[in-house]
Amino acid sequence: MTSAIDSPALPGDLAVVFDFGRVVFDWQPEALLARILPHRVGSADAAAHWVAQVFQSYQGDWGDFDSGHVDVPTLVRRIAQRTGLAESEVQAVVDEAPLSLLPLPGTVALLQRLKAAGRRLYFLSNMPLPFAEHLERSHHFMAWFDGGVFSSRAKVNKPAAAIFDHALDQFGLPAHQLLFIDDHGPNVEAARTLGWNAVQFVGHDELERELIERRLLSLQD
After folding, report:
1. pLDDT tens digits for 92-137?
2. CB 65, CB 75: distance < 8 Å
3. Predicted structure pTM score
4. Domain boundary at 73, 100, 127, which?
5. Which domain holds residue 94?
6. In a domain, 6, yes or no
7. Using 50, 70 and 90 to split pLDDT, how confident is the model at 11?
8. What Pfam families does the entry give (predicted)?
9. More exposed terminus of the chain, fewer Cβ within 10 Å: N or C?
10. Domain endpoint, select from 44, 66, 100
11. CA–CA gap between residue 198 and residue 182 (Å, rounded)
């Protein structure tokens, strides 16, 4: 593990680490299930119910999928047995989910500006392996990143400390030289506890202001 150094990084000297879901890529599980399972998702309450059942707050079966400990057939079988959904229904959701991860234009524009400004870019994302491979194949801006960690390859999910330690090893940088951006509060707090700079993503406008304040972007970039 790369050890952190207590002295702070200079303003503008941080590498920027992005979460993916709801930060770089849109993720709307309620809309996904309503589209794939319209016979089951006929209301907002039904959508919330089935999102909880299928994704389990990204713990349980789906958490094992995120961390690379189960493959797609095992996931489909486990969710079907647990929820009463047909395996064909679960398979349809799993097949469609990566296709619904569409880039968020505002964040992609910030990535482009950061890259043009010479900033080092990394990612740290809870992501099942088939989804990660789809993103790598499908989006040209994945080449803008200097490196990254997917939970399914690290075999551990955020907010566990082990994935942040693994990321330090992969990036070759100490925690204090990284700015981590994630939409999920517990992940942000975990990073801060481990000495990372971290901010919670609420939108690309707010993130732009944060990056300018930290001298990672200027108004001219």
Report:
1. 999 999 999 999 999 999 999 999 999 999 999 999 999 999 999 9
2. yes
3. 0.94
4. 100
5. 29-100
6. no
7. low
8. Hydrolase
9. N
10. 100
11. 8
